[in-house]
Amino acid sequence: MEFPQQQKPAEGKITYPPGVKEITDKISNDEVVKRLKMVVKTFMDMDQDSEDEKQQYLALALHLASEFFLRNPNKDVRLLVACCLADIFRIYAPEAPYTSHDKLKDIFLFITRQLKGLEDTKSPQFNRYFYLLENLAWVKSYNICFELEDCNEIFIQLFKTLFSVINTSHNQKVQMHMLDLMSSIITEGDGVTQELLDSILINLIPAHKNLNKQAYDLARVLLKRTVQAIETCIAYFFNQVLVLGKSSVSDLSEHVFDLIQELFAIDPHLLVSVMPQLEFKLKSNDGEERLAVVRLLAKLFGARDSELANQNRPLWQCFLGRFNDIHVPVRLECVKFASHCLMNHPDLAKDLTEYLKVRSHDPEEAIRHDVIVTIINAGKKDLNLVNDQLLGFVRERTLDKRWRVRKEAMMGLAQLYKKYCLHHEAGKESAQKISWIKDKLLHIYYQNSIDDKALNEMWKCQNMLRGLVRELLDLHKLPPSEANNTAMFGKLLTITKNLPDPGKAQDFMKKFNQVLAEDEKLRAQLEQLISPTCSCKQAEVCVREITRKLTFPKQPANPFLEMVKFLLERIAPVHIDSEAISALVKLLNKSIEGTADDEEEGVTPDTAIRSGLELLKVLSFTHPTSFHSAETYESLLQCLKMEDDKVAEAAIQIFRNTGQKIETELPQIRSTLIPILHQKAKRGTPHQAKQAVHCIHAIFHNKEVQLAQIFEPLSRSLNADVPEQLITPLVALGHISMLAPDQFASPMKSIVANFIVKDLLMNDRSVGNRNGKLWSTDEEVSPEVLAKVQAIKLLVRWLLGMKNNQSKSANSTLRLLSAMLVSEGDLTEQKKISKSDMSRLRLAAGSAILKLAQEPCYHEIITPEQFQLCEQLLIKFFLDECYQVRQIFAQKLHLALAKLLLPLEYLAVFALCAKDPVKERRAHARQCLLKNISVRREYIKQNPMAQGQSMPAFQCHAFWHASLHFCHDTNGASVFLRCLWFMLEVLMTKNENNSHAFLRKMVENIKQTKDAQAPDDPKTNEKLYVVCDVALFVITNKSTACHLESPKDPVLPTKFFTPPDKDFINDKDYLSSEARTFLLTGKPKPNPVLGTVNKPLSVTGRRPYTKSAPLEAGSNLSSNSEPCSPAGSSEATETGASENDENPAIAATEAGKKPDRPFWKSPQEPSSETGQASGRKWDAGAPPSSTENSVTCQTTAAPPPAVNKPRRGRPPKSLAGGGASSAEKEGGGAGRGRKRAVPASDGTGTPTVEPITIKIPKQQDTDAKRSAPQRQMDLQR
User: Fold this and answer.
1) What pLDDT is recorded for position 452?
2) How confident is the model at residue 691 (pLDDT cuts 50, 70, 90)?
3) Where does 1137-1221 have alpha helices with state H?
4) Where is this region: Disordered (predicted)?
C-alpha cells in the first residue's frame, strides 16, 4: 500500500525558518547544532492547522531525513534531528511527508536508537530525550509502521530499547509514556509476533527479573494493560510448546513454567486458554515433566490470593490426582504444597484431607515425614487450619516403623501442645482440642520397641548434658591456660551437638561461655540448676534468673537467648525430682496392694508393677539421688519379695544404682537387704544373681566379706551332672571373680582348671537333638549347653578381672576358645552335640575372643600369628553356615568398634561381609561399616593427636595382610576382589582430609615392604604385592583425587610389615593385561566365539527383556555397589537355599580338585599352583548356575570348541537344582533366560579355568556386552 503523495516543492529550494542559514555538510558541527536548535523551536511551535507553514517547510522536512542527518556521528545533531522528525510526524499527521517504505524504516530505526539516551537522567540533554518520547507516545507515531512489511523489526528494536533503558531514576511520567507507546502498538496492530512477544516475556524470567526490576515492572504493567489483545498470542505460544512440543518456536521455551507462574501473578486472564493445556501435561508419561507441572501448579493453587482452585475445578481435581502419582518426587511435591495450601486456603482443607490420609501411609518414608511436617506447620500457624482428622494422621504416625517419622510426629505434637496448652496462645477451646496430646506422648515415650524408648533417651541426653555443663563449670574454677581453653572448647563442641542447628549454636555457646567467665553469680545459678539435689521448683527459679540476666530490652528477637533457653530446658530437672519419685513410688505401692485402678486403665496389676519398676529403673540411672528415702526403699524391698523375676531384677538394679548411702544412713534397710541379695545371688535367676553381686559390690563397705559368703558355698556346690543347677552359680562366680580379682584369683584358678575346663567343657554328658536345625530358640537349648555357655563367659570375666598379661591363663584360654572354633563348637569331637548347640557354643567362643580383645593388656600379648589366627576365627563367623551366628557376631563386633573398644584392625573383618549371600545383611554390614568410619572420623576431629591410630584407612593394614590367604587361586581372587571392593567403596564414599591420597600412599608404602611373618618367602611377598597392585588399580580408577599429595605419611605397623628398605625399590607391575581387563569390566578380554554365543537378541532402540526365574528374586548388589565390583556372584545362593540348611555359600571345594591358575597371571605364565587336572572350583559365594545379568569369563587363551545351543525357556526339573548338571557341563543354561559359556579346552591337557561369575547391574548389562572400551569406563565414573 502506497502512502499519499505530498506536493513537491521546486527542486533545490529548501526554505529554512527565519534567521536559520542553510544546513549542509560544509559547516562545523557546532554550527549545525546551533541552526538545528532554531529549526527544532520552529517545528515545536507549529501545529497541524498551519497549512501554509506545512507546505513551506515540506522540503526542509524531506531534507532532515537525508543520510547526512540520519548517519551523522554527532549525537547532539542526531538528537535534534530526531526531535524535528517526531514533530514533523505530529504536524503532518495522518499523512507522513515520506513516501518510501525504506525511508520510513530508516527514520523510525533512527528515532529508536536515539531513545537510548533516556537511560541517563543526569545528562544535560535528558529533557530533549524526554520530549522525543513524549511526542512519539502522544501522537502514536509508530502506528505509521503498520503499513510497512517489515514493521516487526522496528517494533522489536523499540521494545528492546525501552526495556533496556528503564531504571530506578526514571519518574512515573517516563514509564507512562513508554507504556502508551508500546500498548498502542499491541492493541492497534493486527497481532503480536513471537519475536515481539519474546521481547516482553524475557523480562519476566527470574534471571532477568533480578537484573532489572524496573523492566519487570514495565512488562508486568504492559501485559496487564493489554490483556485482551495479547492473550491470544500468549495462548498460541504455550500451545506450540506445551501441546505440540515445538520448543524451537522461541528461545524462551525452556522457561515456560516460570513464565506461566509470572503471568498468573500478573493477571490470570492472560492464561485463560493455557490452563487446559496444563491439565494435559499433568497426564504426561514422562515423570519429570509431570513433576515440573506439579511444581508450577502448586505455586499457582497455593498463592495467597489465588482463586484458581475454585475457578478451574477440573484442573484442581486433576492436580489432586497427582497425590497418587507413581513417581515418588511428584507425590513428595504434592505433599509439600499441601502446607501452603492449608495456610493460605483453609477452605480447601476438606479436599486435601483424604489425599493426605493416603499419603500418611505412603511406602516412602520421606513422604510420610513430609505429611507430618505439612500438618504441623499449618497447625503452628493457626490450630483452626487443621481439623481433627489431620491431627489424627499425625497421631497415627507416632507409631510409624521408621524412627525419623515417629520423631517428627512426636516433636510436632509436643510443639503444638506447648504453644496452645502451656502458653495458651489461642484460648481454652484450642487447648481443649489437643489436650489428648500429653497422654498420647507419655504413653508413646515409653515403649518396649528395640530402638524407641524415647523417654530413656531423653533422660540419658539430659544426664549427659548436665555432666558436660558441670565439667565446663569445673574448668572455669581453674586458672586460665592454653590447655584449659582447649578443654573448654572441646566441651562446648560436644554440647552444641546436642542443640538444634549446631553451626549457629557453636557461636552462641562461645558467647555464653564468655558470659559465664565474667559473671560469677551466673555460674552459681547454673551450678545450682545442675545440682543433683535441685528440685523442679528451684530449677524454675534458676532458669528465670539466668534468662533475666541475659535478656536485652532493646533486642526483642534474641537468637542467643533462645539458644540458652533451649540449653536450660534440656539440663533443668523440669519434671523429675525427689517429690516426683516419691509420687511414682506411691502409685507403685497402690498397684502392689491392689488398691490402684489399673484395670480401668486397661492393664493388669502385674503389668502395672513391672512397667512402673522399669520406669523407676531408668530414672535410677539419671536421677539416683532422688531415690534416697526410707519410704522408697521399703517399697523396693516389697518388690524384691515378689515372685515375678523381672520385678525383683529391676528392684535389685535400682538398689545398685541408688543405694550408695544406705549403709551409713539407713541401717534398717541394710539389714533387710543383705540376706535377700545373698539369696538372689545363690538361687535366683542368672540375671538376678548378676545384679545382686554388683549391688553388694556397689553399696556395701565390707563387700569382701559379703562376696566371700556367697563364693564359698557356690564353689563347693558345683556339680556338672546337674547342669540345670549350674547356670546361676556360674554367673555369680564369674561376676565375683571380675569384681574382686585380688581376693578370688587363686581359688578361681583351681575352679577353672579342675571343673570348668576338665569336667564341664571337655565332657559331653548328653546327646543333642538330631533335628538337623542350625539354630534353635532359647527354650530349646539343652541345659548342658547353657551351662557351657556360662562357663565360657566365666572364663572371660575371670580374665577381665585379673587384667594380667603376665599370666599364662590368657594364652591357655585363647587356645581353648580357638580349639572350640576350629572344631565348630564340638570341642570333644564325639559327635554328641546337635548342630544348633554347636552354633551356640561357636557364638559364645567367638564373643569371648571379641570381649578379651577389647582389653588392652590382652590385645598386647596377641602375637601376629595369634592375631592372624584370631582373625581367621573371626572370619569364620562371617562365613558361618548359621546366619544367626553371623548376624549376632557382626552386631557385637559393630557395637564394640563403634564404642572404640576394639583395635582398629578388627574393622577390616567387616570386608568379609561381601561374602554374605543375602543382600539385606550385606547392606546392613555396609551401614555398620559406614557408622564405624563416621565415629572414627568424628573422633579424629575432636582428638587430632589420635589421627594416626584412628584414621579409618588404617583398617586396611590388617585387610591387606589377611588378603594373602584369599588370592592363592582363581576362587580366592574372586573372593578377594569382592571383599576389596566392599571395603574400598565405603572408605572412598567421602574424600575427607584427602583420604583417597592417603589410601594410595599407604598401599604404595606397603608394596615397598615385606610380610613380617615371612620376609624371606618370595611366594608370600609376591601375593602381598599382587594385593597392593589390585588395590592401587581400583583406587586410581575410582578416584581422581588420589594422585594429590597425601596429608600424612602412613606409618605401617611392624607386626604386619617389615620396615622399608632404602635399597629395595619395588616398581614391578604384578598385574597382567588380562587381570586389568578383569578388574575394569568384571570379565576378561572378549572372545569372538563366546561373544556370538552370548549375544542377546534385541530390537534396535529397545533394551532386551529377560524374565527372572524365581530363584533370582533378590539382587546381590547393594544400591551403592560399583558396577564392576565382583560382589554379585551369589545370587542363587541368596534365595535358592533356606537360611540354615547346608549353605551353598560355605560349600567346600570338591576333594581332589587342584587350584586353578591365579587370575593375575597371564595364560602363558607357568603357575606352580596349577595341576594337570582341569577340575572345577567354584567361588565360595556362587553356585555353579549363572544368574540374570551375570556374565561368565574364560581365562584361558585357547579357542573354545563349538557350543551346543542352550535350551530356551524353563529348564527341566532335573536341572533346576543348585548343583552342576550334565547340561551345565555341556554348556547349557541353568536358568530361564540365561546363557553361559563352556570352559575352553584345547584338547592337549592344558588346564582350563572355570569362569568367575561377576554381577553387572541391569541398566548396564546391554552396554557392557557391546564393546570393551565402553566397559572400561565402569571404574572411571
Assistant:
1) 45
2) very high
3) none
4) 1083-1277
Question: In this structure, which amino acid lies at residue 186?
Answer: I
pLDDT band, very low/low/confident/very high, at 944 (cuts 50, 70, 90) = low
The C-alpha atoms of residue 163 and residue 182 are separated, in whole angstroms, by 11
pLDDT at 444: 66
Structure confidence by residue, pLDDT tens digits, 1165-1183: 444 443 333 333 333 333 3
* The total number of residues written for the chain in this structure: 1277
Inter-residue contact 1128 to 1121 (CB < 8 Å): yes
Residue with cell 561376676: 735
Please name the residue ranges forming H helices in 479-627.
Answer: 482-496, 502-518, 520-529, 536-550, 559-571, 578-593, 605-622
Q: Residue 691: which residues within 8 A CB-CB, separation 6 or more? A: 649, 652, 653, 656, 680
Q: Which three cell numbers stand for residue 1197?
A: 587363551
The answer to whether 894 touches 931, Cβ cutoff 8 Å, is yes
Number of H helices, E strands in the chain: 59, 2
Interacting residues of 360 by C-beta distance below 8 A, sequence separation 6+: 368, 371, 372, 393, 396, 397
Pull the grid cell for residue 1012: 613380617
- By CB neighbour count within 10 A (0-12 exposed, 13-18 middle, 19+ buried), where does 1012 fall? middle
Query: Which residues are 1190's β-sheet partners?
Result: 1255
Q: What is the DSSP letter of 1191?
A: E
Q: How far apart are CA 1211 and CA 638, in angstroms?
A: 70
CA distances from 726 to 445, 498, 931, 962 (A): 39, 46, 39, 40
User: Exposed, middle or buried by CB within 10 Å (0-12, 13-18, 19+), for 1025?
Assistant: buried
* 26-27-28 Cα angle (round to 5): 130
Please count the other Cβ atoms lying within 10 Å of the Cβ belonging to residue 516. 17
Q: For the chain, what is the radius of gyration of the CA atoms?
A: 43
Q: Tell how far CA 532 is from the center of its chain.
A: 39
Helix (H, G, I), strand (E, B) or coil at 1254: strand
3-state secondary structure of 551: coil
Largest CA distance in the chain: 145
Could you say which DSSP state residue 1048 is in?
Answer: S
Contact criterion met (CB below 8 Å) for 1251 and 1236: yes
Rounded to 10 degrees, the C-alpha dihedral 281/287/291/294 comes to 40
Residue 1199 pLDDT > 50, yes or no?
A: no
- Integer Cα distance of 730 and 1191 in angstroms: 55
Secondary structure class of 45 (helix, strand, coil)? helix
Closest-CA residue to 123 (of 170, 177, 181): 170
Per the model's pLDDT, the better-predicted residue between 1145 and 845 turns out to be 845
Q: Over pLDDT 70: what percentage of the chain? A: 76
Alpha-carbon gap, residue 376 to 1196, rounded angstroms? 66
Measure the CA–CA gap between 655 and 620, rounded to whole angstroms: 9
CB 366 within 8 A of CB 331: no
Q: What is the mean pLDDT of residues 427-439?
A: 83
916: nearest Cα among 869, 877, 955: 877
Average pLDDT over residues 224-245: 85
Alpha-carbon distance of 977 to 1126, in angstroms, equals: 6
Grid cell for residue 826 = 564340638
List, for residues 35-76, the tens digit of each pLDDT value. Answer: 888 888 888 888 877 777 777 888 888 888 888 888 888 888
